[in-house]
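Recap from last week: sequence in, structure out.
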Amino acid sequence: MNELAISAQGLTKQFKTRGGMVTAVENLSLRVTPGETYGLIGPDGAGKSTATRVILGLLTRTAGESSILGFDSMADSYEIRERVGYIAQQNVLPADLTVMENMRFFAGVQCVSAEAQKKRIPELLAFAGLSNFTNRLAGRLSGGMKKKLALACSLIHEPQVVMLDEPTLGVDPVSRREFWSLLGDLRAEKGLTIFVCTPYMDEAERCTQIGLLYGGKLIAAGTPTQIKGLLPGHLLEFTPAQFAAAQQRITGMEGVLELQTYGEKLHVFVDDVGARKAQIEMALAAEGIAHDDLREIEVRMEEAFISLVQQQTEKVGV
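Predicted structure tokens:
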């Protein structure tokens, strides 16, 4: 087995536009070991899809190196295609083919023998929960079912690596959860390496390793616990009656390390929960600002990402 399932070193991708060269991915380096679920996380426009396509060999790289299972992304595209399953961001399932016809179509594209298809297709349809929908047109499937069918089709040639480009975009929460359950089963039962890029921070929690991409640059990498551990202090949450006034009063207070907004709530990072909670309550009371209880909550990936982006922006600003 190769030491690394996916590797990128100094990977850069630039596009030529009328306004000049635009850098979509800059100096990206990552290492994914076999059997991991690696999440490339970031907002729209961060460069996730571009990075994925370059690593797959679908786009030429401008600089750096990239490989899958030891095969170079640019030179060994055929070897990569044989060993990798891929779900593109946009739906590529022929809408006028049934579920079964789609399975057979992608099996043919991957040169899977008729004998192997007889065994694999029923197994994959059962795995994806589509056994009772073999005659339904793909165009008439729900969004979640389309994603499951796309996953089943990507597995027809028994790949070692599965790469997914925002696979749950636009899918309802229940279907998203079901899809990630399938991915978990794949990793547990078959030991597949899964590489997924997504804008959903909650999905990062399901990955064994993650990379946070912002503005084409990798700003942090590690396990979800390691990423959240990069944030300073402890996190307090509360809802003030006068949001702007509360935000202004707390900003700059002793022991307040960072302030974030979360809907109608304020998230306050402090160095000491006991001491700062009392000080904040006193300060708000002095200003006549009502609020619910200040409570310590666990840092989530969303808070971590916002904090790290703020730090990155401040560095660039300097």
